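Predicting holo structure, iron/sulfur cluster bound.
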Amino acid sequence: MMHEKVTGVMIYYYFVCRRKLWLFNNDISMEDENELVQIGKFIDNDSYSSERKHIMINEEINIDFAESRGVIHEIKKSRKIEDASVWQLKYYLYYLKQYGVENIEAKLDYPLLKKTVDVSLAEQDEKKMTEILDNIKEIIQSEDIPECLNNNICKKCAYFDLCMI
Ligand code: SF4
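Done. Tokens:
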């Protein structure tokens, strides 16, 4: 099944593993069974309870929470794949800009580590984002599943059993 929409999760998976992106987009989902994902959801639900949470826009971007002063937040539990998280947040900024929403700040929060990383969208990021979106569409529309990474990331991936058959 092919989606025209590109979600924040798809951007994240693009940087984590293209095979994961392909599997996810072909409706092969094992995320609910993965304990690490459950822990991540618990942290998400248990954090920042006073803010506006889970703002879904066009079923494409799902902002973890937003402050009224124009700051959006994405919550993660570890910094292991920070590049993917940063680009997910850059995509939110990029997406909102397409709708004329500019001059907002973005922060990547790690409640367990008590750390926050500021994320911005530079001009060169916008150019790279168009390439990323093209690449994602190419991957998800392909009949061929991308190769297995077979590295440390796989050990904690919900698709581990499927990929390692
Ligand atoms: S197990 Fe590894 S190769 Fe398979 S989807 Fe997960 S990260 Fe990608």
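The chain has one domain: 8-163.
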